[in-house]
Amino acid sequence: MKVIAITLGIIIALAVLSVLTVIYTGAFNVATAWKDPALVRWVLVTTRESSIARRAQAVQAPVLDVANRIDNGFRTYREMCAICHTSPGGEVSPLAKGLNPEPPDLSKDEDHMSVAELFWVIKNGVRMTGMPAWSPSLSDEELWDIVAFVKVLPNMSAADYRALDHRLSPGRE
Ligand code: HEC
Fold it and tell me: Atom 14 in ligand 1: which residue has the minimum CA distance?
């Protein structure tokens, strides 16, 4: 019994020592420009997807198919999201190129997220990435407008996006 306790104690002390060594020696590379190895990337992506899927279960979606929701969502997307997530026919911005992980191009995104998951991630953000939480700045209604727009975005051509931009540009509305 005593031997087991001593062995366990040594293992725990060594584990704590290893963690402290990584924290204090600078062994871990915090550079954004350093790309994560495939295994680290898999751990991060899988953790993110499971976390979002679990927390989005409690989200109740309102009716999204309402006039003006897509227009309102577009206005916010153009102002606050396109710089990172680009737009149909748009260039990847210098800001987006420097982020790690890279922000996905939401106009090319396959339909892999439910509306509840989209709402949760836009509202709460993703820790340790460039994805901000929008809950301090936008109401739930405004967030649902964005979800309505993001859902139709993959079906929009560059011409559709430009036409919407033109129709909703300040001074024309
Ligand atoms: C400063 C850059 C930045 C801005 C601004 C930004 N995002 Fe993001 N967003 C990111 C990054 C980086 C990720 C990827 C996070 C990851 O891979 O874990 C992300 C992830 C997402 C995802 C999850 C996509 C997926 O496939 O998992 C959605 C949805 C999203 N953002 C929507 C938005 C919306 C809508 C806005 C505007 C209200 C916005 N983002 C503004 C950087 C940004």
Answer: 103
> What does each of the 173 residues of the chain score in pLDDT, given as a tens digit?
799 999 999 999 999 999 999 999 998 888 999 988 999 999 999 999 999 999 999 999 999 988 799 999 999 999 999 999 999 999 999 999 999 999 999 988 776 899 999 999 999 999 999 999 999 999 999 999 999 999 999 999 999 999 999 999 877 76
Q: Which residues contact 104 (CB under 8 A, 6 or more apart)?
A: 85
Torsion of CA 104, 108, 110, 113, to 10 degrees: 50
Taking the C-alpha atoms of residue 72 and residue 168, their distance in angstroms, rounded to an integer, is 9
| The residue type at 19 | V
Does 104 contact ligand 1 (Cβ within 6 A)?
A: yes
Tokens of 12: 């725990």
Q: With a 6 A CB cut-off, is 73 part of the ligand 1 pocket?
A: no
CB atoms within 10 A of CB 93: 15
**Phi, psi of 32, deg, nearest 5:** -65, -35
Q: Which of these, 49, 78, 52, 58, lies nearest to 145 by C-alpha position?
A: 78
Tokens of 162: 């430009």
